[in-house]
Amino acid sequence: MGELRRDPVRNRWVVIDPERPDREAALKVEAQPPPPLSGPCPLCPGNEAMTPPEIIAFGESSRQRNQTDWSVRVTPDLQPLCRIEGDFDRRPEGPFDVMNALGAHEIVIESPQHLLTWAEFPEQQLERVLRTYRMRSLDLRLDGRFRSLIVVKNNADAAGILRHPHSHVLALPFIPYGIEEELRGCREFYARKERCAFCDIILHERVSRVRRVVETDFFVVLAPFASRFPFETWLLPLRHASDFGKIGEKELVDLASLVKRTMQMVGKVLGNPSCTIVLHSTPFDEPHTHDYHWHLEIIPKTAPVAAFGWGARLFVNPIPPEEAAALMAQQM
Amino acid sequence: MGELRRDPVRNRWVVIDPERPDREAALKVEAQPPPPLSGPCPLCPGNEAMTPPEIIAFGESSRQRNQTDWSVRVTPDLQPLCRIEGDFDRRPEGPFDVMNALGAHEIVIESPQHLLTWAEFPEQQLERVLRTYRMRSLDLRLDGRFRSLIVVKNNADAAGILRHPHSHVLALPFIPYGIEEELRGCREFYARKERCAFCDIILHERVSRVRRVVETDFFVVLAPFASRFPFETWLLPLRHASDFGKIGEKELVDLASLVKRTMQMVGKVLGNPSCTIVLHSTPFDEPHTHDYHWHLEIIPKTAPVAAFGWGARLFVNPIPPEEAAALMAQQM
């Protein structure tokens, strides 16, 4: 019989049932071939004029702006979700609230190479990418209009138009709903326990080890107890920290190496699936210093989500996280 | 520029932006051909022995149980998410909560005909289906172990193994997370306003009419102000009611006709997409009599959800609900 497991942060019950019929699909996913490009890749070196002017780039000190010879480059997104200029024009519409979609939507072009997954990245290149996230987080929070920042990376996403490795940095005037759920849960947990919910999880998983994939001096990788999705994987700092922007250099170097190893493990177990990787960090305007814990969530795209999830969000996961963690750890 | 719109029930911001590049995909979706059956359909008449014994069926009074000649038939699901027998065995696991996945997972076999969408159903047949939902809701609430009931219907779902028209009735020992979010929002709204949030929405939409698709004596169909998905459509009773199980016979007949018309409109606008239809109704054990409003949510599967949604739940919808409502209303 399946189990119902409750996520202690969000108070969310998830069905974990290895006897579900979609189990086999969730255990292996073939990589999609990259879709054909309909023209030159706008993110490749030499095509810098195809993107909006760069915000920042890493390269030789002699390099000129918007020229080639960069290692990492940040530009506004070609099709931004939200725009940086203008007024919010906050207004009611009947009983509803509306504002203009202001925000920063930047892309981090992570490498000059057109096809490269994080599992294949040189560690130093991943370090540069993480440093770029930190830098953008520290810079964008200076703009008082923005309340939160998320980083979204689609690793080898077949649905994406662009296969050139890149990620999205979004600074938003609101807190995305999925982060707000977490923040609320963490605040409630802290009010009851005066401890960080994620710290409790980390403590337990390091002792029990059944869902721990790997740990380093600074981080732990684990399959969460109430995983919504097959092979859902969290990467958390061992020591309590709410703000990714304040990560130290030693931790960052360790993180780059661990992210690469984690993506290699996911790739070996599942055959290089598309993954969505999201950086969860505390909002700028109400820092949850004590009760929130920044982390990376990695969700491989395996089987289609069971239909019960839509709207009602009844999550059903055919791969117990203990099994996912063991399969991943075997690949080390 | 896109707009940020806040759902007043869930306090959830959604990006509505008709200039998104995935707009065209979201405007038309070809119907998927039904996948080939690998054997006889277990839901077709004559194959009653292929399902678990029926719970209830509509048919002639002379009909014998588990024989053919039914018009609607309810059986336990062939691959249930949760089981009806056994103990919860509620237990801690370290800092976590676990229980056995007990619950009722039934399927309503909605017609003897193998391929038929709700848009094609005779109205009387849809009435029988809705009466069946009501009956199961009233029956299953007598089992004190279950806290909530949802009905999930995948209309012409290409991902499903079974194309024979059927829906899932789930009575659960917990409240699905998507419903709990709504209940919490409604409770907070009521605490502030002493009015039902959905009643406020209905009042406004009936006056402004820009997102109202159609209304009858008892119901209204509208495209919600902060639609998460293209052509997201809600069907709500005009008069405040929290519990679908208490729907009257006149309302039920009206609802059947309106559901059919709504599915016809969706089908004409989008070319018969797969749809997920979920019945949201108040939980059994803590009836939200004053602050919750039962309704049906219809979500057509058009373009893939923008990748920003995963985990962070940053919803981006390229079809403004005003436009969706107008396109649907034109098809009447």
TrEMBL record, chains A, B:
The keyword NADP does not apply. Transmembrane segments: none annotated. GO terms for biological process: galactose metabolic process. Its EC number is 2.7.7.12. Binds 1 zinc ion per subunit. InterPro entries: ADP-glucose_phosphorylase, GalP_UDPtransf1, GalP_Utransf_N, HIT-like_sf. The keyword DNA-binding does not apply. It comes from the Bacteria. Zn(2+) binds at residues 41, 44, 114, 164. Residues 5-176 form the Galactose-1-phosphate uridyl transferase N-terminal domain. Keywords: Carbohydrate metabolism, Metal-binding, Nucleotidyltransferase, Transferase, Zinc. GO terms for molecular function: UDP-glucose:hexose-1-phosphate uridylyltransferase activity; zinc ion binding. The active site is at 166 (tele-ump-histidine intermediate). Signal peptide: none annotated. Its cofactor is Zn(2+). This is Galactose-1-phosphate uridylyltransferase.
